[in-house]
Amino acid sequence: MAKIALITGITGQDGSYLSEFLLQKNYEVHGIIRRHSTNCKERISQLEENKNFFLHYGDISDSSNLANLIREINPDEVYNLAAQSHVGTSFEVPEYTAEVTGVGTLKLLEAIRQINPKIKFYQASTSELFGGIPETAPQNENTPFYPKSPYGCAKLYAFWITKNYRESYKIFACNGILFNHESPRRGEDFVTRKITVGIAKIIAGKQEKISLGNLNSKRDWGFAGDYVEGMWKILQHDTADDFVLATGETHTVREFLETAFNYVGIKIEWRGEGINEKGFCSKTGKILVDVNTKFFRPAEVDLLLGDPSKAEKILNWKRKISFENLVKMMVESDLKKFSQE
Ligand code: NAP
Ligand code: F7E
User: Fold this and answer.
1) Count of beta carbons in the 10 Å neighbourhood of residue 334
2) 9, 139, 151, 233: least CB-packed within 10 angstroms?
3) Which residue from 93, 178, 180 has its CB within 8 A of the most atoms of ligand 2, so it is best to mutate?
């Protein structure tokens, strides 16, 4: 019998890669989508003809809808990827973020507890839980949490309620504490994709420059395709547990940007300081990067650097794509996309 998976957040970056991964493993894959007035299925349109792929309307904030779907589909595994996932935006919509990213997790767990507590549950936890304590890097499963945004706080609730349902009701409920992972399918308002789209548009003559916020924050960036395999491995382990997935490397936003420009043969020269800092093309002298305070956050996470040794040892999981190859993959994909549009 093929295993059945239910994925919330299936239209997102990770949902699309996870669907492809599970379909290759012969799962029957079900996903919850929200009704949009525009097309939200861009990342999963290639899967819609697959006979083992099913989409259902729903919303993580609608508990009766979640209960109906759990009853109807009766999955073996639930992957909860649905979230208002943008950290900057969470400062604009903090209550909504708490409802969806935090309490939504409880609604799903409660449906599982009441209908079939044997269902395995994966919660998309995040390195944003570690937030504000740079001196604790590298961060692992034992590092204290200190979220720095409404998003981080909502995910903190989701983390603990997942652990609580594991301990209270013996549900196989696990947290994957994932550090930043990117891809050509990354949303265009996250910094890596904003940079690679910006470069492709500059090359195509459709944009003058890229405006960014904090150039000095450091992130541990991996490839999303590697991380969805880790999610699956977490649910295949013989006991329910929490795992950090990360690369063990950290880079500044500035380094990501310089590496990405490098792929198109442009060297960036920096002049000025703080909000007056600008990145110039070393050959033409044109301004290609500037700083706009609109992209600063009320509180910032300065340094994320993960220690994935527990997952490497216990799950035999390891990232495959290097930082340089991730940047290259994203730049190449956007150059192709924006030269054709
Ligand atoms: P993403 O691209 O922003 O996708 C988020 C998904 O959640 C989308 O499918 C979105 O649907 C859905 N969603 C939002 N609100 C919903 C609601 N009320 N009901 C149902 N679905 C809703 O995020 P991602 O990068 O794939 O990340 C997946 C998960 O991992 C998220 O929970 C994120 O917070 C977490 N995470 C991500 C990273 C990372 O670096 N990518 C790291 C750690 C943890 P629409 O298409 O309808 O908007
Ligand atoms: O920001 C800085 C920004 O929005 C990275 C989500 O998937 O990973 C993601 O959250 C850094 C921050 O990702 C711009 O201030 C500078 O320091 O790409 P980001 P994030 O906030 O790290 C975690 C693990 C998640 O769980 C989240 O769901 O880049 N930055 N200038 C900028 N960021 C953005 N978005 N836009 C800028 O213009």
Assistant:
1) 23
2) 233
3) 180
